[in-house]
Amino acid sequence: MNESSIHYTGKDIEGMEKFFRRNLINCLSGFKSVNLIGTISENRETNLSVFSQVIHVGATPPLMGILFRPHSVPRHTLENILSTEVFTINHIHPGIFKQAHQTSARYQVSEFDSTGLTPLYTGQISAPYVKESFLRIGLRFQEKYILMNDTVLIVGKVEELTIPPKIIQEDGFIDLEAIKTITCSGLDKYHTTSSLARLSYPKPAKPLSEIQ
Amino acid sequence: MNESSIHYTGKDIEGMEKFFRRNLINCLSGFKSVNLIGTISENRETNLSVFSQVIHVGATPPLMGILFRPHSVPRHTLENILSTEVFTINHIHPGIFKQAHQTSARYQVSEFDSTGLTPLYTGQISAPYVKESFLRIGLRFQEKYILMNDTVLIVGKVEELTIPPKIIQEDGFIDLEAIKTITCSGLDKYHTTSSLARLSYPKPAKPLSEIQ
User: Fold this and answer.
1) I want to staple B85 with a disulfide (CB 3.0 to 4.6 A). Which of A171, B51, B57, B141 is the partner?
2) B-chain residue closest to A178, CA distance
3) pLDDT at B3
């Protein structure tokens, strides 16, 4: 497969048609997480939006990040997080992935109303969760970083977590396949997963074993 | 499934046993990309390390990021990127995922020698690629950001890309399943993927269609 490969230089990429390059470059990092972010404005308007740029930032304290595109146009999710300082991250399964994708349309009303997903409130966090999601995380805004291309990295601290009990293993590992959490590639493709293996902690000169 | 869910508060998470919390929180973002990062030191020593924290930062210019744990202990990959300013990102498939995982062991020699993966040089970038990988990206260091928990975000610009030709679709989308790129969850679990659908650009009041 290597022998017949296409080879692009930086100049080749620069010269690509804009939409071709956007699709291509968005695929390079590999499979991505995909989540629904729920927020609420100061005027109590809810917003729900699908994001493929949620990352793990740290476990102690428990921090997660979202990378937003430049704030050069209105971005309701980002604006709501900055004004109310809370947001929710909700895993997506095959039963709701089309509704999740549809939240990206430019609606004049809340994406909850337009997609039929159900807002859920716990009292702990004022932002809405997605009732149909099986794993729901409530976060409080901590820091904002503006990167070199004007993308905005928001870091939040986990303040609430709702999760089905049977999928947490003895050592804390969560079996995401048991709740059918999906993954995505590029800007618009969605995938389910199948387990290859969970591997033991690697040490020099010691063969790996599979964790059951 | 929702009715019987476990509910954790921030305080509950704070009180968790350290390794339990680390495993649990690392799973929260969902499925992650997993890649081999190749670097070289100023003394021409190669390094290869598996990372689940590679993200898409932008398409124009083509930027990708890696989030590193705090630089409080030696981190060869990070140090090599800062001194030689180049690195490679190499996709992982089931044929090399155990070797990829094994690169995390604390070797005294290059992870290429100890895992049997083959360094490959193109002349464009001094950092080594992984010959066994089907999708290989060469990048030049652009910026470093230190986040609130001392994790380090490195952003690089894509300067070279090698990719099998038949997996690039007409609009630039890359069919990662055709080269069996894998995904991971938590700290040590690996997964293959299966396509659900590629969905059309969402517009209000217009049903989604599937892109073939």
Assistant:
1) B141
2) B1
3) 58
